[in-house]
Each structure stands twice: as C-alpha cells, then as structure tokens.
User: Which sequence fits this backbone?
C-alpha cells in the first residue's frame, strides 16, 4: 500500500483481499471483513444524512464486535468516536457527558434503556437500526476527499491527576504511524490472530483493532 492518510484505507484494502474472512469475533459472534465494511459504511451514511460531521459521536455499547463496527462507521461519517460502556462508573460517564456535550449517541439493546438515566438530551441511535441504512457511496467519497491526516479518529477519557476525566484525542496520522511500527515489530501477518483483553473504551485496544485491518 502507498503511504495512507486515513485509517479507513486499511479496511477499504483488506475487504478486497479476503472479504469473507472473519475480522472480529467473540465467543458467539463473528463478523467478516465484508460485513464490517458494509455495516460501517451504512453507519457513516446515516450520520451524514443526520447532518453529523466533524463532531464527537458517543458509542455506548457492550463489548462486542459490533462496537468496533460502530467506531469505524463514525469515522466513515467524518466524525470521531468516544467509547463508553456499562462497566464504567456512572459518575464517570456523567462527567464525560458534561465535558463533551455530544449531540449523538449510538446504543445497542443492552444500553438503550440505561442512557435514559443520564443527563443527556441529544439523539439516541440504535445500532441495529442504523446499519440498515442504504450506503451513499458518493457522500462517503466526498467526506473522504475532504479528510486530512490530522483529523481526529477518537477521544478516550483518562482520569488524570485530579480524578476528573480528561479527553485525549488521536488522529489518523498518529494512529497509522503507530500501527505501522507495531505491526513491523510484531511481524504481523495475515495469519496473526489477536486476543483483545482490554475494554474498548481504553486506548490500548487500538493495538488489536487496527493491525487486524492492516
């Protein structure tokens, strides 16, 4: 691959090589690269249709392969994802909402009811519904054409020395450079299988998410 500027180029490339190979899985569910690609682009199209662009989208879902698809879908839509889940203390989630002031949250069936208990009045999108959105490839191409390598991919919140969550932003260039170096050092190949042990709201999970696509 030529030197890329967008993390989604990994997925765009690998889906052409092995579309039916399992990309992400847990004990019961597995998603092929083609499924990840199609569902993520559907999410990106949905967010575009909703007028969301270059803004934080909270992904409030259980730890599941679908959650990673939601992350990628947010990026396809030209936005950046902020992961949280029910394992996080309630007070911490409240502080993140207060700090971030997001307009949109993507939930699954395990979190769609609990979001009502937080001080949040924005839009709530159901993952299982928004992946049904017909893909608008022209819109996604336009979003990609306007993207630059310093656009943010995600924000993760760390506790910091004060105990109050602080957002740390990662952009395409920093993550690509890190993944390229990590993959070279670990000698990652098409036969490598990653085992993710960290929560998906922790920055360290990028070590499994993105080398898998690469």
Assistant:
């Amino acid at each position: 691959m030529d030197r890329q500027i967008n993390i989604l180029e990994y997925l765009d490339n690998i889906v052409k090589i092995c579309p039916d190979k399992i990309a992400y899985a847990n004990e019961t569910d597995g998603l092929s690269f083609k499924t990840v690609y199609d569902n993520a682009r559907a999410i990106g199209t949905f967010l575009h249709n909703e007028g969301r662009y270059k803004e934080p989208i909270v992904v409030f879902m259980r730890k599941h392969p679908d959650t990673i698809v939601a992350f990628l879908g947010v990026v396809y839509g030209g936005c950046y994802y902020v992961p949280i889940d029910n394992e996080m203390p309630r007070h911490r989630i409240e502080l993140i909402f207060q700090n971030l002031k997001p307009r949109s949250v993507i939930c699954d069936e395990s979190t769609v009811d609990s979001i009502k208990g937080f001080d949040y009045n924005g839009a709530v999108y159901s993952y299982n519904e928004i992946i049904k959105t017909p893909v608008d490839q022209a819109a996604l191409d336009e979003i990609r054409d306007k993207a630059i390598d310093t656009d943010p991919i995600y924000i993760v919140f760390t506790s910091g020395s004060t105990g109050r969550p602080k957002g740390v932003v990662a952009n395409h260039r920093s993550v690509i450079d890190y993944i390229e170096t990590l993959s070279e050092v670990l000698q990652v190949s098409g036969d490598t299988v990653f085992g993710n042990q960290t929560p998906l709201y922790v920055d360290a999970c990028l070590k499994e998410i993105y080398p898998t696509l690469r």
The helical segments are 8-17, 33-49, 65-76, 90-100, 127-130, 137-146, 172-186, 206-213. The two ends are 10 Å apart (CA to CA). Residues 8-213 form a domain with the Rossmann fold fold (CATH 3.40.50.12780). The chain has one domain: 8-213.
